[in-house]
Amino acid sequence: MESTAESSDRTPTEVSAALREAVATMIGAEPDKVAPGANLIHLGLGSLEMMRLVNRWRRDGLPVSFRELAAEPTLEAWQRHFDTVTAESGEATA
């Protein structure tokens, strides 16, 4: 996956593709096989893999919340969370 920090200039669709690719890599699936509303835990994403993703995104400058991602483990929900924290980060620096 490309750096999430780089995703701030991308459209939501492009960020979603990066998210999908990161998750698909973690669960060993093809990105196009991960449906936006699919429960990622049911697809094989464990808490350890989720924490690795969170740590990677935080290192890239995106302050994602493990709790938020774990509460609703779907690409759609994660995209909403990413959009929210990206907007809040932008407001904090503005």
Summarize this, please?
With 94 residues, the protein is mainly alpha-helical.
Notes on the structure:
This protein is 57% helix and 0% strand. By secondary structure, it is mainly α.
List the helices and strands and how they pair.
Layout: H1 12-27, H2 47-59, H3 66-71, H4 75-93
Essential attributes:
94 residues, mainly alpha, 4 helices, disordered N terminus
What is the string of helix and strand elements? HHHH
Structural class: mainly alpha
Largest sheet: none
Globally, the shape reads globular
How far apart lie the N and C ends?
27 Å
Radius of gyration: 12 Å
Number of helices: 4
**Level of helix content?**
55-70%
Task: Give the total of beta strands.
Answer: 0
- Averaging pLDDT over every residue, what do you get? 85
Strand content: under 5%
Low-confidence stretches: 1-8
